[in-house]
Inverse folding.
C-alpha cells in the first residue's frame, strides 16, 4: 500500500515553536526521508472558520503567514503538496456523509474538543460547525487515503474518531477508506510544548507563543520572561525542573553539542538539571543558554522566510497549484465513496438497466 502523509494547521496566526517541535520539524524530516509516496500539507481554513466565522479577515490574512512558515521550515513544494482546505469542496461532501456515522454523544466525549469549548467560552452555545470539526478532519485524512498523520498529542482523539469513521464506513459500505495511524514526536517534551507562561499548551489562541517569525530581540525577551519555578526565588534555593518551562524547552531543543558550544561548565542536560535541583544555579543562566539554542534553531528559518517574502505571488501560486492537485485526489476518493454508498446513480448503467427491466416486466 502507498505510504501517504496528510497533516495541516489552522490559519489562525503565525506558526510557533510548539508547532515546530510537535509537527513541522518531523514533517520536514519525513519529507526528506524519501520514504513516503505522497505528502499533503493542508492549511485548514475551513476548520479555522468554525470558531472564527465572525472574523474571516483573520483567516484570510493568515493563509499567507502559514504558507510562509511552511516554506521557511523547509517544506518543499516539489516534494509536498501544499494546499488550502476550503478550495477542495469534495471535503465538505465527505463530511456530510460521515456525519451519519457519528453520534452526538461520541462527539461530546472528545477531550480535546471539550477543552477547546471551555477555552472559547462556547459552553452555553456551541456552533454546530465547531462541534463537528472532528468529522471534517476525518474527511481531510481519508480524502487523501493517508496512512500516516504526523501531529501533536492533542490530535490523538481526532485520529481515534477518524479510525472509527473508517471502520464504520467500511463495515456498512464495503472496504473503501484507509485507516490512518498517528505519528507522534519521539521526544516526549515535543508532544505538547507548554506556552512561555507555563500553561499546558503553547497555542495561538492563548497568546503564549514564540513564533517562528519572531526576530532575535523578541525571542530573547520572551525567554527572559518565561515561566520557571515560582519557588526558586534566590539562586541558592533548590529548584524544580518538573513543570519548569525552561527545562521542558531544553528537553525539546537542546543537543549534547550545545553544552561544549554555549555552556562548557556542564557536560550534559542531566548535569545542569542536577545542579538546578540542588540549588546554586540561577534562572538567568539557564535562560541565556536556552536563548542561544533557540536563536541557532530559528536563524535559518528566519533567513528563508525573508527570501520567500520577496516574491509573495509565487507563494500564492504554490498554493493554487497544490490545491488543484489535491482536489483531483479528493475527487477520486469522493467518487469511490459515492459508489460504495450507492449514490452514483448516473454513473451506474446496471442500475438503469435493472430499473428499466423492472418496469418493463410490470407493464406486461
Ligand atoms: P489554535 O489555537 O487556533 O487551535 P494551535 O496553536 O492549537 O492553534 P493548530 O493549528 O490547532 O495550532 O495545530 C496544528 C498542529 O500543531 C497540530 O498537529 C497540533 O497537534 C500541533 N501543535 C499545536 N500546538 C502544539 C504544542 N504546543 N506542542 C506540540 N504540538 C502542537
Ligand atoms: Mg489547535
Amino acid at each position: 500500500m502507498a505510504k501517504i502523509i496528510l497533516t495541516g494547521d489552522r490559519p489562525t496566526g503565525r506558526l510557533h515553536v510548539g508547532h515546530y517541535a510537535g509537527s513541522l520539524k518531523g514533517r520536514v524530516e519525513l519529507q526528506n526521508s524519501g520514504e513516503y509516496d505522497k505528502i499533503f500539507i493542508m492549511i485548514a481554513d475551513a476548520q479555522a472558520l468554525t470558531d472564527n466565522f465572525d472574523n474571516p479577515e483573520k483567516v484570510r490574512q493568515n493563509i499567507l503567514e502559514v504558507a510562509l512558515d511552511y516554506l521557511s521550515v523547509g517544506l518543499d513544494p516539489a516534494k509536498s503538496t501544499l494546499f488550502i482546505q476550503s478550495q477542495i469542496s469534495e471535503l465538505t461532501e465527505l463530511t456530510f456523509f460521515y456525519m451519519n456515522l457519528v453520534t452526538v454523544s461520541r462527539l461530546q466525549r472528545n477531550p480535546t474538543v471539550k477543552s477547546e469549548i471551555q477555552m472559547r467560552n462556547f459552553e452555553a452555545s456551541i456552533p454546530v460547525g465547531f462541534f463537528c470539526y472532528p468529522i471534517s478532519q476525518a474527511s481531510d485524512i481519508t480524502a487523501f487515503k493517508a496512512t500516516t498523520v504526523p501531529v501533536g498529542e492533542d490530535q490523538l482523539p481526532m485520529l481515534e474518531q477518524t479510525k472509527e469513521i473508517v471502520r464504520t464506513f467500511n463495515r456498512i459500505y464495503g472496504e473503501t477508506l484507509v485507516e490512518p495511524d498517528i505519528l507522534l514526536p519521539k521526544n516526549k517534551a515535543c508532544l505538547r510544548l507548554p506556552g512561555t507562561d507555563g500553561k499546558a499548551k503553547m497555542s495561538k489562541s492563548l497568546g503564549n507563543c514564540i513564533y517562528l517569525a519572531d526576530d532575535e530581540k523578541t525571542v530573547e525577551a520572551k525567554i527572559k520572561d518565561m515561566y520557571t519555578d515560582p519557588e526558586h526565588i534566590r539562586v541558592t534555593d533548590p529548584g524544580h525542573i518538573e513543570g519548569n518551562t525552561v527545562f521542558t524547552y531544553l528537553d525539546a531543543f537542546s543537543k549534547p553539542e550545545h553544552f561544549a558550544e554555549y555552556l562548557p561548565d556542564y557536560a550534559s542536560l542531566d548535569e545542569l538539571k542536577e545542579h538546578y535541583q540542588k540549588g546554586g544555579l540561577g534562572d538567568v543562566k539557564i535562560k541565556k543558554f536556552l536563548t542561544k539554542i533557540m536563536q541557532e534553531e530559528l536563524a535559518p528559518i528566519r533567513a528563508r522566510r525573508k527570501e520567500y517574502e520577496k516574491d509573495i505571488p509565487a507563494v500564492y501560486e504554490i498554493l493554487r497549484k497544490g490545491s488543484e492537485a489535491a482536489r483531483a485526489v479528493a475527487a477520486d476518493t469522493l467518487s469511490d465513496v459515492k459508489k460504495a454508498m450507492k449514490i452514483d446513480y448516473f454513473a451506474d448503467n446496471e442500475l438503469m438497466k435493472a430499473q428499466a427491466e423492472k418496469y418493463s416486466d410490470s407493464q406486461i
Notes: The chain has a mean pLDDT of 95. The two ends are 51 Å apart (CA to CA). The first strand starts at residue 4 and ends at 9. Residues 28 and 75 are 6 Å apart (CA to CA).
